[in-house]
Amino acid sequence: MKTIIAFCIALATLSAFSQRTIDTEVGEFNEIKVFDLIEVNLIQSDENRISIKGRNVDDIKWVNKDGVLKLRMQLEKKFQGEDTFIEVYYTNLNVIDGNEGAKITCNELEQKKRIELRAQEGAQIKIGMDVDDVDIKAVTGGVIEASGLAKNQSIVLNTGGVFDGRNLKTSNSEVKISAGGEAEVFASERIDIDVKAGGDVTVYGQPKEVNKSTFVGGRIRIVD
């Protein structure tokens, strides 16, 4: 019986240790880059700090250089961040960049003049926004899901990049796809589409002006 109790206590202690939290100030930044399957939740705040939770909290490596905050695992734990969750508190953010299967979520509406989103190597970004201009780039299996409002958007996809922007209501959109990619886009005034070497574009919003070009495959569908 004593052995069982001792085992349970040891197990509880180990679990508590593995699930502990690390909070640290990271200094001012306006761009974030996430790697190694790490999951990040972006939170608007009046301070710049991170809260690391889950497993492997001691193996997170962060660097803030010239206003670019990079979050990744230590080299010996590379690509092992799937059980690690980081809350990132920020005062201003202009560029969100996901890499190596990272998952980045912005649960609050991002309101600003301009924002840039990048996803590559299977990374995922999910965001709501109210902006004038947004630049979107998804390559090598990166996925970006956006909703809200934007006056103008520019989208570049290749090698399997995906943009789910049906719920991002824009006036003007520009879409460029090469070597495969999928885009769902909403535009009410004008859309320019250029597809090379395969790709699919679905357009919502019944834009008044549609300019489209395809080369060596590619499908463009305008939804009434």
UniProtKB/TrEMBL annotation:
Q: Which Pfam families match?
A: DUF2807
Sorted alphabetically, which Gene3D superfamilies does this protein's record hold?
2.160.20.120
Q: Which domain of life is it from?
A: Bacteria
Position of the signal peptide: 1-18
Q: Is Signal one of the keywords?
A: yes
- What residues does the Putative auto-transporter adhesin head GIN domain cover? 28-207
Q: Which UniProt keywords apply?
A: Signal
Record protein name field: Putative auto-transporter adhesin head GIN domain-containing protein
Q: Which organism is it from?
A: Flagellimonas lutaonensis
The record lists the lineage as: Bacteria, Pseudomonadati, Bacteroidota, Flavobacteriia, Flavobacteriales
